[in-house]
């Protein structure tokens, strides 16, 4: 494993001994892995391996039964994500997308991106009161927010659909808009749950390019994905889960050659496991 | 539809009508001169009613077949026209509301109706924040109306505070209760939320009835001071210290009515102004986002709790203002004025007008409350006409008169969003 080669300060997300039980079912069993700053980390595994559960723990939708999740911020103490309420995790700098797209369908693409900047705008509007009375620096903050939204609409090629309701956009565009919306919260870690699901090959290529651009912009990415083409092409590290257990965490080429990963995907009996 | 099928369809409708109206209209028990009950039959009336249904259904199906009129939530030709007129309808309505007291032929009765309609417009706009924007179904809105009314009545009675001091206090108290109601119901959605808010409305009313020592119980509170014109009372004596005397006018009871009219107009416009401004701002947008998808809101760092509470509090505050106004207008409050039917009427205004639409709510209040008064001559038929009108609106415009949503911000031109895409909220 390459973890040891890296200085600790490069770490952005640390998952330590994460366990999630639903009644008697152990969905995630003492999983530990790290994601590095400025890298794309992919979380893969067969269906039901517990990927989305790990995601929901990281983004605060589940409270883990055991273990710790820490977000490392340069020059500050790590943020204990497992102890934070859902909306505070987003404020700490973790943004996410959803496996089944969750946009605000009745609101325009631009409005969707402005809602993502709610906290900044809310502070500028004097928690609503100042802006209603016309007393605050709100108009300037809104112009800046619209400018940022315009940049992300441009980056996701949605600028000409800015004033269309999100629900009327084609599927691929909705996926891109969800990523743009997550990026508008200015996250340090972007978590994407199957962003390439349902996309055609051309759209997948575009998505891969977009993710590389986002990485180049300094945002680390944690991604669940089934499209191995995309995963192997853009990921810096791949974490493999199977039946709630971590079975590999390494560079894409090494993971692809790992017999245990192949076994998990192809359902072949693992020689080591059989021996044990 | 071809005529034969239309005839058959109309015949079926008439048959259903016959089954319905034969016992309802055809049979009637009356008191005979000797004092006993006897059954009177009115088969001629039944025949007329069934004939009307037959013809109505025939005309309707022929017309529908021709025009292809379908239920729609989208921006159909009707909405497009309204939208074009929209920039024009709202100012015209506003202008009319402002000059109403000075239009010749408008007497005290008309002004009283105007005050009543505006009270419901204000309540509708207040509830629109909670139901229309935040998507939280509140069936107990009348509780805040009651809290506002009793706040003013009690503060005036026990502490002798004037209307202008009590008005903001009534609003603050109602908002406080809004937050108090909000806390336990935050986790509830949909039907569960509706039931709890319904119970809250009833609890407030039951407390008002039973806490006789404070509220006077079912007898209510009388002798609530009337509002003064910034310290000048409206009095028929016409002395120098009164409104009429100060302005050198002939004392007239209409002065107070006109003042009350402008007071509620001002309060309603305040509600509207605050709502319109908030809708274009992060808080209002967060309410609408909450209505669309609460989970996505949480993932974007929006504090769902405070956002919901703010909607509850603000809606309750305007309900409280309206309540204080109600108390000062009536000079008497009793729990009877705050029954569930009031909540239902306000909610009906919001739903008929179109969730989230300010103009729609105003028109719906005008039609529902004003229309109700207008058709007073129809006596018992009034309810039937009224129910029919409501059904017709809901059949043709399932999302209310204004079923579309206007974006709050746009890079280019703002285009109305079809009601099909806009979520109604899950509670």
From TrEMBL, chain A:
<dbReference type="GO" id="GO:1903806">
    <property type="term" value="P:L-isoleucine import across plasma membrane"/>
</dbReference>
<dbReference type="GO" id="GO:0015192">
    <property type="term" value="F:L-phenylalanine transmembrane transporter activity"/>
</dbReference>
<dbReference type="InterPro" id="IPR032823">
    <property type="entry name" value="BCA_ABC_TP_C"/>
</dbReference>
<dbReference type="GO" id="GO:0042941">
    <property type="term" value="P:D-alanine transmembrane transport"/>
</dbReference>
<dbReference type="Pfam" id="PF12399">
    <property type="entry name" value="BCA_ABC_TP_C"/>
</dbReference>
<dbReference type="InterPro" id="IPR027417">
    <property type="entry name" value="P-loop_NTPase"/>
</dbReference>
<dbReference type="InterPro" id="IPR051120">
    <property type="entry name" value="ABC_AA/LPS_Transport"/>
</dbReference>
<dbReference type="Pfam" id="PF00005">
    <property type="entry name" value="ABC_tran"/>
</dbReference>
<dbReference type="GO" id="GO:0005886">
    <property type="term" value="C:plasma membrane"/>
</dbReference>
<dbReference type="GO" id="GO:1903805">
    <property type="term" value="P:L-valine import across plasma membrane"/>
</dbReference>
<dbReference type="GO" id="GO:0016887">
    <property type="term" value="F:ATP hydrolysis activity"/>
</dbReference>
<dbReference type="GO" id="GO:0015808">
    <property type="term" value="P:L-alanine transport"/>
</dbReference>
<keyword id="KW-0067">ATP-binding</keyword>
<dbReference type="GO" id="GO:0005304">
    <property type="term" value="F:L-valine transmembrane transporter activity"/>
</dbReference>
<feature type="domain" description="ABC transporter">
    <location>
        <begin position="13"/>
        <end position="268"/>
    </location>
</feature>
<protein>
    <submittedName>
        <fullName>Branched-chain amino acid transport ATP-binding protein LivG</fullName>
    </submittedName>
</protein>
<keyword id="KW-0547">Nucleotide-binding</keyword>
<keyword id="KW-0029">Amino-acid transport</keyword>
<dbReference type="GO" id="GO:0005524">
    <property type="term" value="F:ATP binding"/>
</dbReference>
<dbReference type="InterPro" id="IPR003439">
    <property type="entry name" value="ABC_transporter-like_ATP-bd"/>
</dbReference>
<comment type="similarity">
    <text>Belongs to the ABC transporter superfamily.</text>
</comment>
<keyword id="KW-0813">Transport</keyword>
<dbReference type="GO" id="GO:0015188">
    <property type="term" value="F:L-isoleucine transmembrane transporter activity"/>
</dbReference>
<dbReference type="InterPro" id="IPR003593">
    <property type="entry name" value="AAA+_ATPase"/>
</dbReference>
